Amino acid sequence: MTVTRREFIGIGAATAAGLTLHRPARAEILERSGDRVGDFAGPPVVVASANGIRGVARAYDMITKQNADTLDAIIAGVNIEELDPDDQAVGLGGLPNEEGVVELDASCMHGPTKRAGAVAALQDIATPSNVAKAVMDYTDHILLVGPGAKKFALEMGFKEQNLLTEKSRQDWLRWKACLNPNDNWLDNPGTPPPADKVAYDDPLHVKFTTGTINMNAVNSRGDISSVTTTSGRAWKLPGRVGDSPLVGAGQYCDNTVGAAGSTGRGEANIKVCGAFLIVEFMRQGMTPEQACLRTIERVVALTEPRLLDRNGRPLFDLEFYALAKDGRFGAASAYEGGQFSVADASGARLVPMAFKYSRAQRPMMPEVSCRRA
Ligand code: GLY
């Protein structure tokens, strides 16, 4: 390892101040000196949230059979769900905000070129992941929001369309009708979804309230990319931005180490910069799974009491996914039972996630129902 004069002075100053160089600092110095951490490649692997199972298969094929760039491949992967009107978690058909308007968030990072792009609260464009990549490719910015993001997308040639499908409109109306027993709407709770499809913060049992796809890929050269796309929390306040479009929270990629991303309650993740933290934990030597679990612990530690049960366990869902440069992967959520998508030489499949609390420790969902049902 060669240490430049400037780094040498930096190390000397730290030592003189009685500080010991901790591991990240050392890793940074190694990296800057060209002796890169984890600088070797393994097999191609694509990792995503469970709802990305079709996408990981497509992305893996593109990487291994067409020699596609990792970011192009995973964006093509998440496009499957963004363009599927039956998927209410992302893109076309995503559940709308409290005014019935679909607002989409996405971000991406391209490891080899060290670039990033993102859009938030984007309306009327079905594939925010592609718009995020266009921000990355064509501008000197990283994040465009709201009307500015849409104007940019239209200028780039993206097609404007109504993203609110009939099914999502009906779900939104049912939620709206159940809000207040004293307003002019008659409550109509509809049929509650199966218990395992209801999130803890789901008001009125109207489907899930968060749904997102995170996808990460590494190729045989060790080049890595990450992308996250979402329609965010259903019934959110207009203009609400979750973790997905925030580089370092919803996804993060460092070509010397690996990539990570999240799904679930974005407000909980933003406070810990989860994707960045996972990559930093991997840089320090943790496995992808250990890094995800440690980050779940950090989330719990930073959660305000109103969102914890009496045992200090979270009343919401949050999942993390991680992929190391050498092809190792892992994922974790607070509670047992989650799965994530993997595609590698063994095919595309769902794999159980690590967890912090067992199924039995999962608190009961707060009982909320239509007040006039
Ligand atoms: N994780 C997606 C969101 O909170 O919007």
Give a written overview of the molecule.
The structure is a single chain. By secondary structure, this protein is an alpha+beta fold. It has one domain (5-166, 206-361): Glutamine Phosphoribosylpyrophosphate, subunit 1, domain 1 (4-Layer Sandwich), CATH 3.60.20.30. It contains 10 helices and 13 strands. The strands form 2 sheets. Strands 4-3-2-6-5-1-11-12 form an 8-stranded mixed sheet. The chain has a 5-stranded mixed sheet with strand order 7-8-9-10-13. The model is unreliable at 1-38, 198-208 and 365-373 (pLDDT under 50). Residues 210, 212, 230, 232-233, 242-244, 263-266 line the site of glycine (GLY).
How do the helices and strands line up, and which of them pair or pack?
Layout: H1 5-16, H2 23-32, E1 45-49, H3 53-65, H4 70-82, E2 104-110, E3 115-122, H5 128-138, E4 143-145, H6 146-155, H7 166-177, E5 212-218, E6 224-230, E7 251-254, E8 258-264, H8 266-270, H9 274-283, H10 288-301, E9 318-324, E10 329-335, E11 339-344, E12 347-352, E13 354-357
Parallel strand pairs: 3-4, 10-13
Antiparallel strand pairs: 1-5, 1-11, 2-3, 2-6, 5-6, 7-8, 8-9, 9-10, 11-12
The structure holds glycine (GLY).
Key features of this structure:
disordered C terminus, alpha+beta, Glutamine Phosphoribosylpyrophosphate, subunit 1, domain 1, five-stranded mixed sheet, eight-stranded mixed sheet, disordered N terminus, 373 residues
Quick overview of this protein structure:
By secondary structure, this protein is an alpha+beta fold. The chain has helices spanning 5-16, 23-32, 53-65, 70-82, 128-138, 146-155, 166-177, 266-270, 274-283, 288-301, and strands spanning 45-49, 104-110, 115-122, 143-145, 212-218, 224-230, 251-254, 258-264, 318-324, 329-335, 339-344, 347-352, 354-357.
